[in-house]
Design goal:
With 663 residues, the chain is an alpha/beta fold. The protein is built from 23 helices and 28 strands. It is globular.
Length: 663
C-alpha cells in the first residue's frame, strides 16, 4: 500500500518463515511519524499526576456533577470543584492507609458511575493501590471470581450493590477484609459482614477514619500497574488485564495530538456525560482525558430511558457512545421524518442531500450548510443538548449508513474508534471532517504502530494489493499481561506485538476497516471455511431484521440462523398478507419464517455470496439477545458458546427439518 496523507511506513513487510505467517509493513500515524513515544510533559508520569496537576491548574472549575432531587423530581446538576474533590480524595486516601492498606493492594470498586467512584479511584491512584472494577454483567459469579482471582482486600460499593457483594461470601471473605458503602449501611448488613470477620463502613464513617492523620504518598513509576480491568471475553472466565500508568498517559497524549492535528482540542469548558460503565476502559480513559483538561463530568441517573433527559439538562460537548445508542437515535430520527408530512420530508431530504454533497466535495461539516444547520438540523442538535461537538463511537462496529446520516444531521464530528482493553481502548480513530473515512475506524492513533499478519486459513493476505489480515498493535498503550495468566499472555503477545484477533483491511487512504474476527471461523462438512462475523455483517443489511446469529459446524453442509425480526416490519408484512396474531405468535408462523428467509436469500444473491454461505433455515426470536441471559458481552458482542447452549434444541430441530425435507 502506498504512503498516504494519514499514515507512514516505518518498517518493511516480512515474508512468512519459521512457521509464522507473513506480516505486512508497519504503519504509524503521520502526525507522529518520527516518534514512537509522546514527548514528556513535566511532572506527568502517573494517573495521579493527571488529577493532581489539574487541581493545581483548575481548582475552582466544576469537576463532578450529579442531578439534585428536589421534591422528588430531578433538578439541575450540582457540582463539586476540582479542589473539593481533591480534599475528599485526600480524606479517602488517609482512611485507606489508616486501615493498613498501601501500594500494591487490590481495591475493588463496584457500582454505577458516580462521584464516589471517581473519588475512590483517585485515592487508589494517589496511594498506588490497584483499582479493580467489579462488574456484575460479566456473567453469573463474575464478581466473586474477580475478588478471589485478583485477591481484592478492600472494596467500595454502591449502596444497592452491598446485597450482591454479600452473596459472594464465604468464598470472597478469604480475601475481602474491608467493605465501604458509597451510601449507608444497615445494622443487618453490619451483623452479616461481621460474621465473616469483615469491617464495613458507610461513606461518612469511612471519611472519618483517617481524620487528623496524614500519610506520605508512595513513589510511583510510569511502569507501575494502575488498574486490573477484567474483560468479559466471549468464552471462559474473565481475564484480568493489567494496565499501567504509562499505558493511559500514552493514550491521553495520542488523543490530544490527533485532535490538535485536526484543529480540534479538549479544553476546560468541555462537559462530558458519564453513563458508559467506568468499569470499562473506554469510559475510564475518556474521563481521564476530561480530567487532564480541567473539564466537567456530569453523571447520568442510571436509567437508559432517562438518558436524553439528563443530556438535555447537562448540555454536554463530548458524547461517547456504543453503536447501539446511535442506532436508537437514528431509528428515532428516521421515524420522525417519515411521519412528518410531505412538506417537512421534502425540506429535510433537500437539506440533507445539499449538505452531504458539499461535505463530499471536501467542505467541513460546519461550512457545508450553515443555513440548513440553523433551520433544519438544529432540532437534532437540541435533542442532544445543543452543545455536542464530538461524538465518539467505540466498542463495536458502527453501521456505515448510520454514521453517514448522523455526520450530516447532528452538526457534530462523528468519530469511530477501535481498540481493546488490552490496548487501553484507543488504537485507531477516524478523523474529523474526513468523509472518506466513513465505515472505517481511521488511521492509528499517534504513538501506536500497527500492521497486519496474514491468516492463510481464512484467505487473508497481508502482502496482497488490498492488504488484509489480523490487526497487530505495538505501543506503550499495550497492556503488561493478564494477571496470573502468563499462558494466555504468551498467546497474544508475540515479539512485542499484541494480536487482537480482529481481521482488518487497510484502505487506500490509510484508515483501517474491520472486516472479520479470526476466531469466529468454522469449517462445514464439505471442507469450506465460513467467516461468520463477516457473513453476519452482510445479512445485517436486511431491513426487516434487528440482529442475526449464524451457526454451522463440520458435521453439516449448510448454515442456519437465529434472527430477531424488527417488530414494526414483521407486523406490516403480516397485515399486508392477512396474517393475524401478536408479535410472539408471528415469530412462530411458518409463513413469517419463509418471508424472513426469503429476504436473507435476496441479500445473499445481491452480494454474490457462495452457495454454502446461504442460510437454509431460520428461527425467529421475539426477544433480542441480551446480557440477562448471558448471550451478549457488556459491549454487545455475541457470546457464541452461550448462544449455542441456549438455542441447542432449536438448532438441532432446524437441521433435522432441512435434512429430512431434502432426504
Amino acid at each position: 500500500m502506498e504512503e498516504t496523507r494519514y499514515i507512514v511506513e516505518v518498517e518493511k513487510a516480512k515474508e512468512a518463515k519459521d512457521g509464522r505467517p507473513s506480516m505486512g509493513p508497519v504503519y504509524r500515524s503521520v502526525f507522529s511519524k518520527d516518534h514512537a513515544h509522546p514527548p514528556p510533559v513535566d511532572g506527568l508520569k502517573t494517573c495521579w499526576d493527571v488529577f493532581r496537576m489539574s487541581v493545581e491548574k483548575y481548582p475552582t472549575n466544576p469537576m463532578l456533577g450529579c442531578r439534585e432531587i428536589v421534591n422528588g423530581k430531578p433538578d439541575k446538576y450540582k457540582w463539586q470543584t476540582y479542589k473539593e474533590v481533591y480534599d475528599l480524595v485526600v480524606k479517602v486516601g488517609n482512611s485507606i492507609r489508616s486501615c493498613g492498606y498501601g501500594k500494591g493492594v487490590k481495591c475493588g470498586i463496584y457500582g454505577g458511575n458516580c462521584s464516589e467512584w471517581i473519588i475512590s479511584m483517585e485515592a487508589c491512584n494517589a496511594h498506588g493501590l490497584y483499582c479493580v472494577p467489579l462488574y456484575d454483567t460479566l456473567g453469573a459469579g463474575a464478581v466473586e471470581f474477580i475478588i478471589c482471582h485478583s485477591e481484592v482486600t478492600l472494596a467500595f460499593a454502591e449502596e444497592k450493590k452491598i446485597p450482591e457483594l454479600l452473596k459472594t461470601f464465604p468464598n470472597a471473605s478469604k480475601y475481602l477484609k474491608t467493605l465501604v458503602s458509597f451510601g449507608n449501611v444497615t445494622p443487618e448488613q453490619k451483623q452479616e459482614v461481621e460474621k465473616f470477620g469483615l469491617a464495613i463502613y458507610s461513606w461518612d464513617e469511612f471519611l472519618q477514619m483517617g481524620q487528623n492523620k496524614s500519610f506520605d504518598l508512595p513513589e510511583q513509576k510510569e511502569s507501575d500497574i494502575c488498574t486490573i480491568m477484567y474483560t468479559s471475553g466471549t468464552t471462559g472466565d474473565p481475564k484480568g488485564v493489567m494496565i499501567s500508568n504509562e499505558n493511559i498517559i500514552t493514550l491521553l497524549a495520542g488523543i490530544k495530538h490527533v485532535l490538535e492535528s485536526c484543529n480540534e482540542r479538549l479544553h476546560e469548558k468541555d462537559v462530558y456525560i458519564s453513563y458508559l460503565p467506568l468499569a470499562h476502559i473506554f469510559d475510564r480513559v475518556i474521563e481521564e482525558a476530561m480530567i487532564w483538561h480541567g473539564a466537567a463530568i456530569g453523571f447520568w441517573r442510571g436509567d437508559i430511558k432517562l438518558l436524553l433527559e439528563d443530556i438535555g439538562e447537562l448540555k454536554p460537548t463530548i458524547f461517547c457512545v456504543v453503536p447501539r445508542v446511535l442506532d436508537r437515535v437514528y431509528s428515532g430520527l428516521t421515524q420522525k421524518i417519515s411521519t412528518g408530512g410531505f412538506v417537512k420530508q421534502t425540506m429535510f431530504n433537500f437539506a440533507y442531500s445539499y449538505k452531504l454533497h458539499n461535505m463530499k466535495r471536501g467542505q467541513k461539516h460546519v461550512d457545508a450548510s450553515p443555513l440548513f444547520d440553523r433551520v433544519v438540523f438544529s432540532k437534532v442538535k437540541q435533542g442532544l443538548g445543543g452543545n455536542v461537538r464530538i461524538i465518539l463511537s467505540g466498542a463495536a462496529p458502527l453501521a456505515k449508513h448510520v454514521e453517514g446520516f448522523l455526520r450530516v444531521v447532528t452538526c457534530a464530528h462523528i468519530m469511530q474508534g477501535y481498540g481493546l482493553t488490552e490496548t487501553c481502548a484507543g488504537s485507531f480513530v477516524s478523523l474529523p471532517n474526513e468523509i472518506d473515512m466513513m465505515g472505517t475506524v481511521g488511521p492509528p492513533v499517534p504513538y501506536v504502530d500497527a500492521c497486519l499478519e496474514s491468516v492463510p486459513e481464512m484467505g487473508y493476505d497481508a502482502l496482497a494489493s488490498t492488504p488484509r489480515g489480523e490487526i497487530c498493535i505495538r505501543a506503550n498503550t499495550v497492556f503488561s499481561g493478564y494477571y496470573k495468566r502468563e499462558d494466555l499472555t504468551k498467546e497474544v503477545l508475540v515479539d512485542g506485538w499484541f494480536h487482537t484477533g480482529d481481521i482488518g483491511e487497510w484502505q487506500p487512504n490509510g484508515s483501517m476497516k474491520i472486516i472479520d474476527r479470526k476466531k469466529n471461523i468454522f469449517k462445514l462438512s464439505q471442507g469450506e471455511y465460513v467467516a461468520v462475523e463477516n457473513l453476519e455483517s452482510i445479512y445485517d443489511h436486511v431491513s426487516a431484521i434487528e440482529s442475526i446469529w449464524i451457526y454451522g459446524n463440520s458435521f453439516e453442509s449448510f448454515l442456519v440462523a437465529v434472527v430477531t425480526p424488527k417488530k414494526e416490519s414483521l407486523e406490516v408484512w403480516a397485515e399486508e398478507n392477512g396474517i393475524t396474531g401478536d408479535f410472539n405468535s408471528l415469530c412462530e408462523d411458518s409463513k413469517a419464517k419463509s418471508y424472513i428467509l426469503g429476504e436473507l436469500t435476496k441479500i445473499a444473491k445481491e452480494k454474490k455470496l457462495k452457495g454454502f454461505e446461504f442460510i437454509k433455515a431460520v428461527h425467529l426470536e421475539p426477544v433480542p439477545f441480551d446480557l440477562e441471559r448471558d448471550l451478549m458481552t457488556p459491549t454487545f458482542k455475541k457470546k457464541r458458546p452461550q448462544l449455542l447452549k441456549y438455542y441447542q434444541n432449536t438448532i438441532d430441530n432446524m437441521y433435522k427439518t432441512v435434512n429430512n425435507s431434502s432426504a
